[in-house]
Design a protein that fits this description.
Blueprint lengths: L19 E8 L8 E4 L10 H5 L2 E3 L2 E5 L5 E4 L1 H14 L7 H14 L11 E10 L11 E11 L10 E5 L24 H9 L4 E5 L7 E4 L2 E7 L2 E4 L10 H12 L4 E4 L4 H4 L4 E6 L3 E10 L2 E4 L7 H14 L10 E3 L1
Parallel strand pairs: 8-9, 8-15, 12-13
Antiparallel strand pairs: 1-2, 1-7, 3-6, 4-5, 4-6, 5-17, 6-7, 9-10, 10-11, 11-12, 11-14, 14-15, 15-16
Helix pairs in contact: 2-3
Length: 339
C-alpha cells in the first residue's frame, strides 16, 4: 500500500500522487455501473478515443478539509454532482448519477484521508473527470464512457493567501462565445486560456480578465474563476448567460451576501468601464476560494482598488465562507457534508 510522505509545509497548487482513485464505466444508452477503488496509476486508452480526438469530456473540482479535531468536511458536493450531470447531457454523454458521483467522492476522500493537510496549509483537491473512452473515427458520441475520481493535496491557488492580485484585461482573446459550452466544465474550454494566461504571468500579472465575445465590453470571467464587483454597497456579478460557468463558490457568495450581510446582489452585465469605478473587486472559485483584486490593467492604464489592499467587504465574505468550509464557524445553510 502506498504511504503518505508528503511535506505539507511545501504544498503549492500542483499535482501530488496519492494512494487510490475511483473508476466506473458506462456504455452508450445504458446506466452507469458502480465503480471501484483502484491504486492510482496510468490508464489505457485508444488513440482513436473521442476524448482525445474530439474533446468529449468534462471535469469537476472540489476540496476536502480536515479540522483541528480530525473531522473531514466536503463543501456542497451535491452541487458538483448536479453540475456534472447537466454537463454530461450538453456533451452527449450518459448523465452521471448523483448516487455514483457521491459514492465515488466519499470513497476516494476516505481512502486518501491521510493526504489531507491541516487547513492552514491547504486542502485535498478532488478531481472527478468523465470522458468518452471508446474509439470512434467519425464526429459522433463515444460508445463507452469512463468516470474517474482522483485527488491531490494542494496549497493556495494564488501565492500569499488572501492578498490582492494584479490582473490584466484581454483584448486579444475570448474565453467562450454565447450558446457554446462556456457554462459547462468541458475539458476543451481550458486549453485556449493557457496562452493568454501564460503571457499575462510573464508580464507580472496573476491572471486574465476576459470580456464578452460579442461586444468586447462586458466582463465575463477571470481565467477559471467568477468575477465580482462591489459598488455603492451592492455586489455585482456577471449574469449566467450560458458562456459563464455557474460556479458553486459564486452561488455561495451570493447567498452569504444576501442572507448574512443583508446586501443587494445584482446578476447582470457589467462593463469593464463600470468595473473601473467599483469600490472593491474580487474573483472566486473552488481553487482560489476568494482572491481580492488589487489592480486591473486595461488599455495601458492600471486602476487601483481599495488602495491596493484587501477590501473590507471582500474580507468579510472570505471570513464567513472559509469559516463554513473549514468547520470553524456554524453552517447556517447546511452546505457541509461531514464524512
Amino acid at each position: 500500500m502506498k504511504t503518505n510522505n508528503v511535506n505539507f509545509d511545501d504544498l503549492t497548487f500542483t499535482f501530488t500522487e496519492t494512494r487510490s482513485m475511483y473508476v466506473a464505466k458506462c456504455k452508450l444508452g445504458q446506466d452507469w455501473n458502480t465503480g471501484e477503488l483502484v491504486p492510482y496509476g496510468n490508464i489505457s486508452i485508444s488513440p482513436a478515443s473521442t476524448v482525445l480526438n474530439y474533446g468529449q469530456g468534462l471535469f469537476e473540482g472540489m476540496k476536502a478539509y480536515k479540522t483541528d479535531d480530525e473531522r473531514i468536511l466536503l463543501f456542497r458536493p451535491e452541487m458538483n454532482a448536479e453540475r456534472a450531470a447537466k454537463g454530461c447531457l450538453r456533451l452527449s454523454m450518459p448523465e452521471i448519477s448523483k448516487t455514483i458521483f457521491m459514492e465515488a467522492i466519499q470513497k476516494v476522500v476516505n481512502d486518501n484521508s491521510d493526504y489531507i493537510p491541516p487547513t492552514e496549509k491547504g486542502a485535498l483537491y478532488i478531481r472527478p473527470i468523465i470522458f468518452g473512452s471508446a474509439e470512434g473515427l467519425g464526429v459522433a458520441p463515444s460508445t463507452e464512457y469512463t468516470f474517474i475520481v482522483y485527488c491531490s493535496p494542494v496549497g493556495p491557488y494564488f501565492k500569499g493567501g488572501l492578498s490582492p492580485i494584479k490582473l490584466i484585461v484581454s483584448t486579444n482573446y475570448h474565453r467562450a462565445p454565447l450558446k457554446g459550452t462556456g457554462g459547462v466544465k468541458a475539458i476543451g474550454n481550458y486549453v485556449p486560456g493557457m496562452l493568454p494566461s501564460g503571457n499575462a504571468k510573464r508580464e507580472g500579472f496573476a491572471e486574465i480578465i476576459y470580456l464578452d465575445a460579442a461586444e468586447e465590453q462586458y466582463v465575463e470571467e477571470v481565467g477559471a474563476a467568477n468575477f465580482f464587483a462591489i459598488k455603492e454597497g451592492k455586489i455585482i456579478t456577471p449574469e449566467l448567460t450560458g458562456s459563464i460557468l455557474p460556479g458553486i463558490t459564486r452561488d455561495s457568495i451570493i447567498h452569504i451576501a444576501q442572507e448574512k450581510l443583508g446586501m443587494a446582489v445584482e446578476e447582470r452585465r457589467i462593463s469593464i468601464d463600470e468595473v473601473m469605478t467599483a469600490d472593491e473587486v474580487f474573483c472566486a472559485g473552488t481553487a482560489a476560494i476568494i482572491s481580492p483584486i488589487g489592480s486591473i490593467k486595461y488599455k495601458n492604464k492600471e486602476h487601483l482598488f481599495s488602495k491596493g489592499n484587501v477590501g473590507e467587504i471582500t474580507r468579510e465574505l472570505y471570513d464567513i465562507l472559509t469559516g463554513i468550509q473549514f468547520g470553524t464557524d456554524n453552517d447556517p445553510f447546511n452546505w457541509i457534508l461531514e464524512l
